[in-house]
Amino acid sequence: MVNILLCCNEGMSTSFLVKKMQDIATKNQLKVRIWAVSEPKVDTESLEADVVLLGPQIAFLEEAITKRLGGRIPVETISAEDFGRINASTILKRALTLVRENKKN
């Protein structure tokens, strides 16, 4: 099981994206858990995550969140284009790639 945490200002703008990503994962029989939280909850919620994807509206916090999490899991901002278009397939693939690359290291 791969645990993918999405994080934005309030955890609401990513909720629709979570649903779309989960639908694609289910359709492709991928074992993933995807959920969204607001930025203040990322520290505790990330304890169960394999990767943290940030909404573009908090891209400026990527470096700070990476440091707060101690580099133990990948943190990356979703591209504004993919986020705006709700390109769930591309975002899911990127999350899985980040997890796979992190496990190699």
UniProtKB/TrEMBL annotation:
It holds the Pfam family PTS_IIB. PROSITE patterns: PTS_EIIB_TYPE_3. InterPro entries: PTS_EIIB-like_sf, PTS_EIIB_2/3, PTS_EIIB_3, PTS_sugar-specific_EIIB. The modification Phosphocysteine is found at residue 8. Residues 1-105 form the PTS EIIB type-3 domain. Keywords: Kinase, Phosphoprotein, Phosphotransferase system, Sugar transport, Transferase, Transport. Gene3D superfamilies: 3.40.50.2300. It comes from the Bacteria. CDD domains: PTS_IIB_chitobiose_lichenan. PANTHER family: PTS SYSTEM N,N'-DIACETYLCHITOBIOSE-SPECIFIC EIIB COMPONENT (PTHR34581:SF2). This is PTS sugar transporter subunit IIB. It comes from Granulicatella seriolae. The lineage of its organism: Bacteria, Bacillati, Bacillota, Bacilli, Lactobacillales.
